[in-house]
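Sat 14:20. Reprocessing the chain from the morning session after the first attempt stalled halfway. Input below, unchanged.
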Amino acid sequence: MLNNNQVNKVLFSVLLMALFVGPFARNTYGQQQKSYYWNTIQNFRKQDSLQSLPQNAILFIGSSSFTNWHNAQQMFPDYIIVNRGFGGSQLLDIKQYFEQTVYPKKLRQIVMYAGDNDIASGASSAEVFNRFKQVYDLIRKDQPKLPIAYLSIKGCPGRARSIPVVKETNALIREFLAGQKNAVYVDVFSATMDSEGQPLKNIYVEDGVHMNQRGYDIWAKVLMPYLKK
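Finished this time. Tokens:
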């Protein structure tokens, strides 16, 4: 049986281990998180090196709702659309994209959709808003006058429990963007809800999270007036 001195020595050793191993573990975790979409982002960079992005293009950046919008260019034939959505991404992943990718200085506009995966993973409205601000500030640091359109987070039947947080987050972002220059909030949330405030079910595929063509038809109609020519 350990005496008091021996117990104190054991506790001291555990404390030292926590002090040294703890930061290392957090740093390792951060590196793993940061590198999760590394291959995807590097693939984008490779595409851009083989064929430079056209000037005056509209850059779509966001999660799978953009990834799955395969016919976005066809739906906006009068615009040059570059789709850089990558499925499963959260706002901090979008931030990583802008940190690692050199995009054209003569973009016409950035259209962003992200945040619903953050909420689905447990982030609060305040946390999502803070992450959005980080992305927004990063873009503004590089291109202070570039028009930005943010599509509101959708309230989908597959994530119905998250709708209250979605509403709170949308309200925070809408209020913030109302005070910004060259930035707009595009309300696709309201357009995809029924008269009783419930998400339309016929605009989603079986998982109740990703949209079918009917959903994208609604998005295109709402977004069109905000696209820059």
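The domain at 52-226 is CATH 3.40.50.1110 (Rossmann fold).
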